[in-house]
Amino acid sequence: QVQLVESGGGLVQPGGSLRVSCVASGFTFSTYRMSWIRQAPGKDLEWVSTISTGGDNTYYVDSVKGRFTISRDNGKNTLYLQMNSLKPEDTALYHCARVTSGRRGINVGENDYRGQGTQVTVSS
After folding, report:
1. Which DSSP symbol is given to 92?
2. pLDDT at position 51, please?
3. Which residues lie closer than 8 Å to 93 by C-beta, 6 or more apart?
4. Residue 55's CB: how many other CB atoms inside 10 A?
5. Is-contact 7 118, C-beta < 8 A?
């Protein structure tokens, strides 16, 4: 069955950096677009970023452009999100998600599987 397991979250000071990872299994990772979505306390799920199957096309929500970088290693079935210049408003549970086949994956509703998430807290 499809499994997505995130890791790498933690507590970081404002302006700091963190890289979160997601290991995928149970499907052919290289044939699916993948996304990161997040949920802050008391708020709805928010789409953050999506990457194409080969990694050559990436998309970001405006609030993280220039600070976050999504990447993937298809040989390792792993998705990454490098987060720099972190702000308190980036505090959230970060989920890795598989984009539904045939969809662009730039909205929360375009994912068919989602991992349990890894907590990122930005605070001094």
Report:
1. E
2. 98
3. 38, 39, 117, 118, 119, 120
4. 15
5. yes
Host H or E run for residue 49:
strand 45-51
Between the alpha carbon of residue 38 and those of residues 17, 28, 30, 46, 108, the distances in Å are 17, 24, 23, 5, 9
Contact 29, 49 (CB under 8 A): no
Which letter does DSSP use for residue 32 in this model? S
- What whole-number distance in Å separates Cα of residue 90 and Cα of residue 68? 11
Q: How far, in Å, are 66, 82, 101 from residue 21 at the CA level?
A: 19, 9, 22
Alpha-carbon Rg for the chain, nearest whole angstrom, is: 13
- Token pair for residue 89? 């408003």
pLDDT tens for 26-85 read: 999 999 999 999 999 999 999 999 999 999 999 999 999 999 999 999 999 999 999 999
Is residue 19 a contact partner of residue 53, using CB atoms and an 8 Å limit? no
